[in-house]
Amino acid sequence: MSLADMSLPDLVGTLLGFFLTLMVFSYAFGDNALFRATIHIFIGVSAGYAAIVAWYNVIWPQLFLPLVFGSQSERLYILFPLVLSGLLLFKASPRLSWVGSPAVAYLVGVGVAVGIGGAILGTIFPQTQATINLLDTGAGAPPDGSLLFFIAQGVLIILGTVTTLIYFHFGARNRVSGAPRRPEWVEFLARVGQVFIAITLGVIFAGVFTASLTAMIERVQFIYDVFVPLLTGQ
Amino acid sequence: MADVRCPMCGKPNPEELELCQFCQARIKPLEGRSPAEEFNSPIGAEPPLDTGGEQDSIDEWLNFLRQSEDEGEPRPFDEEQLADWMKEDLDIKMPESQEPLEPEGTPDWLSSLRSIADEDAPEPPDVEKAQPAVEPSPADSSEENEVPGWLSKLRSRRTAEEGEADQEFAFQLGEEPKISEQAGIQEDRSAISTESVSDWLSELRGEEAPVVDSSQPPELVQEELPAGQVEIGEEVVQPGVGVVSQDEDIPVVEADRASEIQPQTEEIPDWLAGIVAGGAAVAAAEGVEADLDNLPEWLADLEKSSALDREEIVPFGEEGEELTFDWLQTQVRAGQETPYGEELTSDTLGTEADTRGVGPFVGDLSDFLEEAELSSLEAAQPGVEQPGGDLSPAELPTWLEAMRPVDAAAGVYAIDAQDGQVESSGPLAGMQGVLPAEPEIARLKKPAVYALRLQVTESQRAHASLLDELVKSEGEPKEIPGRPAVTSPYLFRLIIFAVLISTILWQVFTGSRTSPLPGLMPETFDTSEIIDNLPENALVLLGVDYDPALAGEMEAAAASLVDHMMLKGAYLGLVSTSSTGPALGEHLIATVGSLSGNRYQGIEMYANLGYLPGGASGLQAFAQAPRQVAPFALDPETTAVWSNTPLQAAQDLAGFDLVAVITDDSDKARAWIEQVQPTLNGTPLIMVISTQAEPLVRPYYQANPKQVDGMVVGLAGGGSYEQSHQDLLAGNGLARKYWDAFSLSVLAAVVLIAVGGFVNLVTNLLNAQKQSKADKKR
Amino acid sequence: MGSGCDHPGWGSIETGGADMKIPVAAAIAIAFGLVVLAGYFLPLPELVSLRTILVQWSMIIASTALFVGVANLLRVHWFKLRKGGTASAYSFLLIASLLVTLVVVGLYGPTGSWSLWIFNSIQFPIESSLMAILAVVLIYSAARLMRRRMDLFSLLFGMAVLLVLLGSAPIFGIEIPFLYGPDGLRSLIVQIPAVAGARGILLGVALGTIATGLRILIGADRPYGG
Prior knowledge:
The complex is a heterotrimer of chains A (234), B (778) and C (226).
Chain A: H1 8-25, H2 33-69, H3 72-77, H4 79-88, H5 101-132, H6 137-140, H7 147-167, H8 184-232
Chain B: E1 3-5, E2 12-14, H1 35-40, H2 55-71, H3 84-92, H4 108-120, E3 128-129, H5 149-173, H6 176-188, H7 198-205, E4 210-211, E5 230-232, E6 235-238, E7 242-245, H8 256-261, H9 270-280, H10 297-300, H11 302-305, H12 326-332, H13 346-355, H14 365-379, H15 398-402, H16 407-413, H17 458-475, H18 488-510, H19 522-532, E8 539-545, H20 551-567, E9 571-576, H21 581-596, E10 606-611, H22 616-624, H23 626-629, H24 641-644, E11 658-663, H25 666-680, E12 685-689, H26 694-701, E13 710-713, H27 714-724, H28 734-777
Helix pairs in contact in B: 4-13, 5-6, 7-13, 9-14, 18-28, 20-21, 20-27, 22-25, 25-26, 27-28
Chain C: H1 8-11, E1 13-14, E2 21-22, H2 24-41, H3 45-83, H4 86-108, H5 113-148, H6 152-166, H7 185-191, H8 193-217
Antiparallel strand pairs in C: 1-2
């Protein structure tokens, strides 16, 4: 859509986005007041939007509507979260923040339980099974791939998985002389796992760069799409 | 056998002992002296010699003396009333007929001195010749009732000098009020009976000794005590030495007699020779007068205090090292008349003095004493000045001196010169070393002066100076070194930015579409198949769980997929665990619509279910009860989606035909997989993820059984999807739009990383070489 | 989060006959956490229902926590604004933008036109631009890697980065076979050693999550200040 086809709000919004993009790009030349101002505006807008979304999505329909328009059972249902939510508001006061500790404790307790359940049922069991099944030719061997490659791939993945787990094992026995050290065979395997970890982190780094590069391409494209029509008057 | 208690320490001792076996104090007083009387004697004074005197006889003559003073007339002394020990003294005072009295325990040097004096003395000093040096007192010539002029003179002189001495003593002890009291006590002592000392003085002086009426005691001039000597009552105390004299004035010796003493130097001990030498410089003696009428009571008690044998008293702890005046006084009093009878004439005293070797006493004795005192004071520790002012050494009759304690006992009484505490009141007034009745804390004392000088070592001094420099430098303005505006890291970052921007701009500007899109990838293929297999009007739960920062990549990766679903007519239910999710979902729908022309609008096509707070907890709750957790859509009408839209067909998440999650974060992807996937019950789960999340999501895709059924990874995945479905997005896919710029900028980035890394590697190696060379040089 | 132990109201409850103090917050966390965890493994309908209710309540309380965070942000910058100085201008911008957004989005809703206008015109461009700037920083840090630390693992890291980047797209339009494509080196690196390492990391993270969660559920750790 060209600038000429835009409505005034859209045009103003586009231009605003354009200048804000340039202000953020000015950081390439060093920290400056424009960049800082832009960042502060961004924080304010994102905080305000998040608060309204939380109100619209959760607080109003699940807390106040049942309290005001709901039945007795619905009110009873939301009594506990209502009380805890009220206590949690005291966390905004440094002097009375201790009042909100039960609400925080509730969040932590439930969140931790959810995390444990998900870790066990969603990662430990399936991933362990997947590691075991790497060498199971009947479970998932590629129809057109060579068996040798399949087995080699499986062995390598198993080796990498196990050695990576060993690397994160830091238990060691006390020694009479010197600091506690892991056994030699554990150290060797940990070194192997460190190789796999280094490769994995390198791949992650490359992925982050790719993502940021794509974002830069998108921004540059946006600038081009706005600037050129302004220049050419299109 | 009955035990006798020691008067000093109070411990029981056998009766036969004369000295205490614990403190060496005299248990049995010499010549009848009572233990109580011994207590009244100044500390440091030697106990009287044991002459076998009886206590009663002492008391009698003392009382006799007191009565004489009170009545103003010296009462005659009845010889018969004398105790044997007194008679012995009388015999001592008869030098012509009798041998000099040598009390028990007399040191050999004293005896030798006396013998020398006896040999060398030309003649007994004529008391009368000593008269010029002694002012004849107008005392009553009665030998029975007269108070020796020297005593009265002594008293008057003491009174005049008392104030001065009191001040000094008060300063030393801090007990000014007591000094006068002490002095008063001293004054209260009964005056000793008058005795002309002029006779023995003249004996000491030899031919030129003034002639003094034998009936009259030689008048003693109350002399100023030598420096360091302070009179305390009857005694003259030399600081550091002890009591060196009694209240009696020591008869002076004329200066001209000093020369006579000189030849005798060779024959006398060395210590005496020094005194003689000092005596040669003694000034003319002053007369000693004694006012018989004004004899104080203390003089009556002279017997008690004078029992200390001066010649036995030694400086504190220095027996025989320092010159004391005791032996001098002993010599002086050799011819002294005793107050006990007229038989004790000056002749006898003078004879006694001669026999005792008073040759050295030539000239002014006080001056001689001062010289010696000064010499002894140099080594002696400074002590407390005793009150009483300047007093000439008191004269002791021979018998009194014989009563003085022996040297062995003197050491016991030797007092630490530093403990100059002198009792100023009570029965122990004038004594040193008395345990104070008051607690130490209650007594006023001059506080001790401690050195406030800080002891600093050299290292501490160096550290202190260093710290001082540091502190000083803090206050000094320092010139801030100018920072260069352009540094190498800054330049490098600028170059990187310029290269990237220019590369992208070039591709964007040229609109290049030359780079081929990636081919079909396995994960993309799986995803495509799943979507292809969706039924008509399928219910698709679309999780929009990415941040606006990566919206460019995610939209480029997911736009074709969403368009594919739209083309399939699927009803989209948008949900997000981030607060910006609803807005991003709207933006995605709008973008896809603008690109493909398939505009999804209204609740009939999609429902924005909004935000699920709590992260994994919210997903778990939504997975368990989606209708309760997200009952309404975020449309302006707030539609109840679970009853008024196609979503009503889904009771739970398993009722959806497809769950597609668009996320840029591996943690969010893992939360969806862990919380939602187990509840799907066969419903496929596909993910559109960023390249940064791919390594941590791929294990779930590559798992067997799969936990993620399909995956579209980043711009390349989106391009691959667009490549396989070129009808999507009307050929205006974002991946296609960005691909050329992406490929060129990635190459530029690789080159920058490689070149920069190589330069840094070489720099590092060179620095390491330099460092190793520097270390080797060290 | 402040500690509740210092105040008698929420600090503890005295057990009868014993001197043991049980923090209230810890009791809440442990009790509700165990119920939710039990619902994962015990197929009891009531327990599952209870777990669902408890988790739904946590969503409501988490929304309130978001409000508390925004309120605290407002308070901090309000104090900075009152304090004055150079930073007060930035705080003014933050507070102004926050209040305007609250008003506009509150009036029109999260998906209203003006709400989306604010989002599309301000938040979206700024965040995207911040991510774009990150590319420069990442290149710079990758280039400096060899200068800071040079060992086998750094070399492996660098090589993986370069190979993955090179295999991400064609070079000048030319697809290098051994590098690019589904069978190329990049795909091999991503699908085999990276998956192995990532699987090990995922398992380790899951084990750590279980250990940390159990410590909280038994009361050994109390991050909520109980």
